[in-house]
Amino acid sequence: MTPSELLRLYHIIRVMLSYGLDELIPHLRITLPLRVWRKFLFWMPNRHKDKPLGERLRLALQELGPVWIKFGQMMSTRRDLFPPEIADQLAILQDRVDPFDGKLAREQIELSMGGIPLESWFDDFEIVPLASASIAQVHTARLKANGQEVVIKVIRPDILPVIKADMRLMNRLAGWLPMLLPDGRRLRPREVVREYEKTLLDELNLLREAANAIQLRRNFDGSPMLYIPEIYSDYCSENMLVMERIYGIPVSDVEALKANGTNMPLLAERGVQVFFTQVFRDSFFHADMHPGNIFISEEHPEDPQYIGIDCGIVGSLNKEDKRYLAENFIAFFNRDYRRVAELHVDSGWVPADTNVEEFEFAIRTVCEPIFEKPLAEISFGHVLLNLFNTARRFNMEVQPQLVLLQKTLLYVEGVGRQLYPQLDLWKTAKPFLESWLKDQMGVAALIRGFKEKAPFWAEKLPEIPELIYDGLRQHRLLRHSVTQLTDELRMQRVRQSQSRYLFGVGATLLLAGLLMLVGRQDLPEVISAGLMAAGVVSWVIGWRRTR
């Protein structure tokens, strides 16, 4: 570990202890060494005793920077795992992080616009930010060209070195994990950290976010389920993004949604449908769906529509991943745990020699109790923990390409729990997945595949006679080469057989000559010398045969 990484690690520990977060360490026998280590090596006191634990946790994560703030945002959606006094404070991290000076934001905007004064492009620029998050903050303005209300998103200054320092430290600690934990290698911690680092660095490029938002807007163009604000790409750069200003109710403000007459059951169901549509229909999903990035349109509350912003982190799945996930979901919904176990083995996520019967029984033990219960009574956090323990028993590896999907699933559950705790997640998702699988495997899929390939086949059709001729010629040449190679191998075997025979003859002659030289003094030495010379000649000829 380098001096800079040690210094950063010390800073992280010092910040956490200065906010008294060692209170979160449970008083168990297994944590005794950790608590003793804290007392002897770090004796710094809690400097914020007047604040409740939830606020201290939020302030510590906020002080540590964007990597930790993102972690807090994810935890804020798990109200089933944390008491309200902690979850409410962590929710503040979604869009109410301490802002940086609006004058710095103005300077960055003008720098991104080529040094031209801001007033040349925008009217009514608000120096006080509308919202501030871990990576960037937004200011309101109005486009001078058409009078459209917009928000301008600006990256926090000097944020990149902080992120890279934390990720280097996390990568270092991830390298230690396989040595510290018996199943640490199975977790593939380096790959997971590398994937997390990539998503964070992608968020720093607002041109990428603009492209993601344009893609999502096109995917849901005209959809009653999801609206993505328009992006004004002519004004965008790596450090600045300009998009349509939207007005809506934050998805976390359940009381305001109810007061507006929102159809809460339909809203919750559409949240699930939006997620599965993005994942399975489009293979392109918003992977940062915490409540700070989701609003509900105030119009048509009986037919509610989501509004999604902050598309910096998106995920995608290939055809194999989608097929595997869909079949697993269907098998779970049908309680076909045998199929779930077989899919895990077939995919290579667990070793091929896994006992399928034992794996099936373990999955049944974990998953059977969760069915036929409303969402309010199901803790997916506990289910995931049980599945983790099951996976550890059967050496299942973590799949880094699905980390974003797993995180998004946690967000969807957290939002669904807040909106409508009685939502039947299984009933909502199962018809969608069955329809998708049928579409992928039925006659319609065959016809669609034919239509997709038809232009390519039509282009190659005139070349078919020439390709057939080339194939036949290549086949003839290949057959000639195989025949030639076979002959060469046969001749080589003959030469090797001859060389072994000559080596044997040479050894016999040498041994005979040596015995005659030593044991029969009455024979002329020339006979012994001749036999030995003949043996040497036989060896030389045998050696040349092997070349």
TrEMBL record:
Protein name: Probable protein kinase UbiB
Pathway: Cofactor biosynthesis; ubiquinone biosynthesis [regulation]
Taxonomic placement: Bacteria, Pseudomonadati, Pseudomonadota, Gammaproteobacteria, Enterobacterales
Enzyme class: transferase
Domain ABC1 atypical kinase-like: 93-344
EC numbers on record: 2.7.-.-
Transmembrane segments: 501-520, 526-543
NCBIfam families: PRK04750.1, UbiB
Binding site for ATP: 130-138, 153
